[in-house]
Amino acid sequence: MKNRLFITIWIIIVSLIASPLIAENTIIEAEFFLNNDPGEGNGTYLNTDSNTFQKNITLPNVSYGNNTIYVRAKDSLGRWGKAYPANFTVVEKLPPVQNTYDMSIIAAEYFIDNDPGQGKGIAIQAIDGSFNDKVEQFSIEDIPVNHLSLGNHTLFVRGKNQLNIWGPTKQIQFKRIEKNPPIQNEYQMSITAAEYFIDTDPGQGNGIPIHAMDDSFDSKIENFEISDIAVSHLPLGTHTVFVRGKNQLNIWGQTKQYTF
Prior knowledge:
With about 260 residues, the protein is mainly beta. It has one helix at about 15, and strands at about 5-10, 25-35, 45, 50-60, 65-75, 85-90, 105-110, 120-125, 150-160, 170-175, 190-200, 210, 240-245, 255-260.
């Protein structure tokens, strides 16, 4: 924020008129300009009615940094004197320094891995419902992680004080792993399907379906009968028929084999 800049200018006729021989003449006009001379008579007008005067002027829209203001006057003969410079520096006015440790937290946010920028994280809610104290408790729950890759990640948390200044981030490491189904005792599960194959395993679920004798696989123990097995395509000799079942978790069990 720029301050409005007030400069007090003392103009003395002896200093402003180029020659001491014309010191008896009266100043009838004065002007000032900043940095670049616009030409005599083209500066900002200063009203005067005496050879020595004091003038308060306001300089709006002055750029930050070093600047120079020039002042010159014109006498009753229409002659402009030398432009005299005065250097000054415009600096930004900062808010008064306050002890941030005495301020309340007014907001908090978190993000994962990549910083989206201050104020652009996911908002955190205070446990008591309002951020209005120096120390606040909060809980981060139900963080969506399904979009994250498996492996290590970092959760970042930061807060903002009454001056709208965000503090440093605090980080927590965590690891996303693949969620497996709960372990269950397969012996407590019902059989939902069964199949058989001869000699060569075609892969789980690719065998020849077996039908339960009660027409439904829905118990821990099921009776079934394999009949009308096509064997005409088999060469003469010894062969093996394999049987296996599938449980409620769609997990196929071990094969049982019978030689014929």
